[in-house]
């Protein structure tokens, strides 16, 4: 069984590093070393940033691939029209088990990501920056980076910056789910599709992109479009970050110029010489068979032309010794369990699709295959978010790629191979790591509590109601990422029975992080 990927796997580079510059020197580039490696960054106007993004063909690296320049212009125009300040959101929520590229950047090069975000904020006049995260390691790294730059959420600052922690789930990284979490709600899609450029965080126009996109912007702003364009393809200049796992000797994140043969990258990670198939774009992506994978190059256009997808940058080969349909069933079951449970296509359709694939593998014959195709088609375009669409894409690609195995299971007694479980999934305990502690405690005053239950609705992670309708936990440690919701629960308690207890001075957590004020852009000197 393939073990879950570590937060920060091995990092390799093909050619000259750009995003990973300095990784050969230290495990994490602090602000001082970051400036020595990359140099200072000068501010640009909004149109100059948009033009730069256009000239380097910068698209979002989180999966959707929307042109960054168009997104920035849309946010700026909406902010001007409405007369409000826009918001910048860095999406570092990698809830997919096969993706680690953003996590690597946030852990090892956090200031490169912040450079791009702050450049965009200065360019369009944003006064709020939010970084959405899912893991302890990324939260610790970004809080240290905030301290090194003097970024804070205090009132009166020209730029207020904060970190929001979301559960490590597939749907938590969806744009609308992250925006909902930033606004204090659950990290789930809201059930209606709205454009963040029009109405995002707090109803303000919001520029939301993933960590790699902002890091690429920071690199391009330093190099300029001409130098940046000397790497990679003319139509898709620069480098991309790929997470390689599955049937590989060494799971890794690789920075590679566009145009490099995919087979070379697979060889670098120790993949089988003749893979049975290669899943591209992650668990919302598409399969390539062995021949197509041999012919593909690392580029959005090349992968799409062969039926694959760049998507979130995950590449997962499987060898000839495992059953590809069995591997797909494991992922289909996980995708069904990741449903937000808010709409029929997700709540009902994805479990039905996974059950249909199971029926095919267990001898259901042509009728089971036809039922699988029908339910997969039925969920497309009908969900409250893109999770049903991505899951349906994965299943449809599985059926169309592994036709020989499909025929063996539908018409015969199966393919005769076991399912080895080479595609990574969370461990049996799931994503159960605890967040960073704040030192504060949430406490209930029993002489005042009347059992309204509002606190359990606002912070179910900390307080649950007992059989009698009263809180089951009298006091609970408050992690940093839940502090805001805990404070909201205190304010909204009708009986004023809830309070947050501060740590005593002798027990207060001590920080070794520097707090000197630093400029967001420029040299970084005090």
What does this entry look like structurally?
Helices cover 38% and strands 13% of the residues. It has 526 residues and is α/β, with parallel strands linked by helices. It has 4 domains: 29-225, Rossmann fold; 242-317, Ubiquitin-like (UB roll); 324-411, Up-down Bundle (de novo design (two linked rop proteins)), CATH 1.20.1440; 434-526, Alpha-Beta Plaits (2-Layer Sandwich). The strands form 3 sheets. A 6-stranded mixed β-sheet has the order 1-7-6-10-8-9. A 4-stranded parallel β-sheet has the order 4-3-2-5, with helices on both faces. Helix 4 crosses helix 5 (110-124) and helix 5 crosses helix 8 (211-229). The protein is globular, with a radius of gyration of 24 Å. The protein starts with 9 loop residues before the first strand and ends in a 25-residue tail after the last strand. InterPro entries: ComplexI_51kDa_subunit, Nuo51_FMN-bd, Nuo51_FMN-bd_sf, Nuop51_4Fe4S-bd, Nuop51_4Fe4S-bd_sf, Soluble_ligand-bd.
């Amino acid at each position: 069984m393939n073990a879950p990927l570590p937060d920060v796997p091995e990092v390799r580079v093909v050619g000259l590093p750009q995003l990973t510059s300095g990784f050969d020197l230290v495990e994490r580039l602090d602000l001082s070393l970051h400036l020595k490696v990359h140099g200072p960054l000068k501010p640009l106007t909004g149109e100059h940033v948009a033009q730069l993004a256009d000239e380097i063909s910068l698209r979002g690296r989180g999966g959707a691939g929307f042109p960054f320049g168009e997104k920035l212009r849309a946010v700026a125009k909406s902010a001007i029209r409405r007369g409000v300040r826009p918001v910048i959101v860095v999406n570092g929520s990698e809830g997919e088990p096969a993706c680690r590229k953003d996590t690597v950047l946030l852990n090892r090069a956090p200031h490169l990501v912040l450079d791009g975000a702050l450049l965009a904020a200065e360019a369009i006049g944003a006064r709020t920056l939010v970084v959405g995260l899912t893991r302890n390691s990324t939260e610790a790294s970004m809080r240290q980076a905030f301290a090194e730059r003097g970024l804070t959420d205090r009132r009166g600052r020209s730029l207020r910056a904060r970190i929001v922690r979301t559960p490590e789930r597939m749907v938590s990284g969806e744009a609308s789910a992250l925006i909902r979490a930033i606004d204090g709600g659950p990290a789930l899609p809201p059930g209606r599709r709205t454009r963040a450029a029009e109405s995002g965080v707090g109803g303000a126009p919001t520029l939301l992109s993933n960590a790699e996109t902002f890091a690429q912007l920071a690199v391009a702003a330093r190099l300029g479009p001409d130098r940046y364009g000397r790497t990679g393809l003319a139509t898709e200049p620069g480098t991309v970050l790929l997470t390689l796992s599955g049937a590989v000797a060494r799971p890794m994140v690789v920075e590679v110029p566009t145009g490099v043969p995919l087979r070379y990258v697979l060889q670098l990670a120790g993949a089988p010489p003749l893979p049975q198939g290669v899943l591209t774009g992650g668990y919302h992506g598409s399969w390539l068979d062995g021949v197509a994978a041999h012919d593909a190059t690392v580029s959005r256009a090349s992968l799409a032309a062969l039926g694959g997808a760049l998507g979130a940058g995950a590449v997962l080969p499987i060898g000839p010794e495992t059953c590809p349909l069995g591997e797909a069933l494991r992922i289909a079951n996980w995708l069904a369990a990741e449903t937000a449970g808010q709409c029929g296509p997700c709540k009902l359709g994805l479990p039905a699709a996974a059950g249909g694939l199971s029926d095919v593998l267990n001898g259901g014959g042509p009728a089971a295959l036809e039922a699988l195709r029908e339910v997969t088609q039925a969920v497309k375009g009908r969900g409250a978010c893109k999770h049903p669409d991505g899951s349906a894409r994965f299943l449809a690609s599985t059926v169309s790629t592994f036709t020989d195995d499909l025929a063996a299971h539908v018409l015969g007694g199966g393919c005769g191979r076991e399912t080895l479980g080479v595609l990574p999934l969370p461990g049996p305990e799931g994503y159960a790591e605890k967040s960073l502690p704040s030192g504060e405690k949430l406490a209930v005053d029993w002489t005042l509590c009347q059992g309204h239950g509002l606190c359990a609705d606002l912070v179910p992670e900390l307080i649950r109601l007992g059989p009698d309708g009263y809180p089951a936990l009298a006091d609970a440690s408050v992690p940093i990422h839940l502090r805001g919701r805990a404070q909201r629960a205190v304010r909204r308690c009708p009986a004023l029975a809830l309070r947050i207890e501060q740590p005593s001075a002798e027990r207060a957590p001590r920080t070794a992080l520097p707090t000197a004020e630093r400029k967001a852009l420029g040299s970084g000197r005090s």
